[in-house]
Amino acid sequence: MKKALALLLIATSLSAVAVAFSQSFSVQLGDNKGPRQPINFSHRIHAGKLAMNCLYCHYGAEKSAIANLPPVGTCMGCHKLAVTDRPEIQKLTGYWERGEQIPWVEVYRLPDHVKFNHKRHVLAGFNCMECHGPVDKMAVVYAYPPLKMGWCLSCHRKNLNNPNFPATMDCLACHH
Q1: How far apart are CA 164 and CA 35, in angstroms?
Q2: d(CA 167, CA 129)
Q3: Tell me: the pLDDT tens digits for 48-64?
Q4: Which pTM does this prediction carry?
Q5: Given pLDDT bands bounded at 50, 70 and 90, which one contains residue 77?
Q6: What are phi and psi of 47, to 5 degrees?
Q7: Across 96-111, average pLDDT
Q8: Rounded Cα distance, 139 and 118, in Å
């Protein structure tokens, strides 16, 4: 009985350690070049060369916890007229004409037990690239930061006394 209890305790401990260890990995996709998207969208052109504000497409970031993936109508606001002869824009127009949303592939995926609120960070004055990296230089966006708990905690520690963003070290602020 004691051996069975000891084995159960060891197995439970190892399982807990394995889960904790796996959650410390970066949530990155592919070979750090980002996921393949249904339309080859270049942030280097839009955020870089054209200097478009991130919030034009990801308008949810200042209004809700989720930044949102842009709906096809946002893209077509410009591309009804701009560079309509290009194959990727023609694909975009196809989605628009069929009344379908673009099935964008999420680049950032946090574990289910973590909650993150874009609105709080954006309204506190954080620039998108502070967390998402040099998006304006990325042809294909990839998960730039490590998204490990330590990475988040270091930013929270740095901002504990920031009057614009009173960061907290309370575990329940980020975890369910």
Answers
A1: 34
A2: 19
A3: 999 999 999 999 999 99
A4: 0.73
A5: very high
A6: -85, -30
A7: 92
A8: 23
Band the pLDDT of 90: cuts 50, 70, 90: very high
Q: What single DSSP character describes residue 48? A: I
CA–chain centroid gap for 67, Å, is 8
pLDDT above 90 (res 1): no
Cβ distance 95 to 156 under 8 Å?
no
> How many Å from the N-terminal Cα to the C-terminal Cα in the chain?
36
**Rounded CA separation 26/99 (Å):** 36
Torsion angles phi and psi, residue 100, rounded to 5: -105, 150
Burial code (b: 16+ CB inside 10 Å, e: under 16) for 81-110 equals eeeeeeeebeebbebbeeeeebebeebbee
34-71 burial code (b ≥16 CB/10 A, e <16):
beeeebebebbebbbeeeeebeebbbbbeeeeebebbe
Residue in this structure with the two tokens 């490990």, named with its chain if needed: 148
Q: Which amino acid is at 47?
A: A
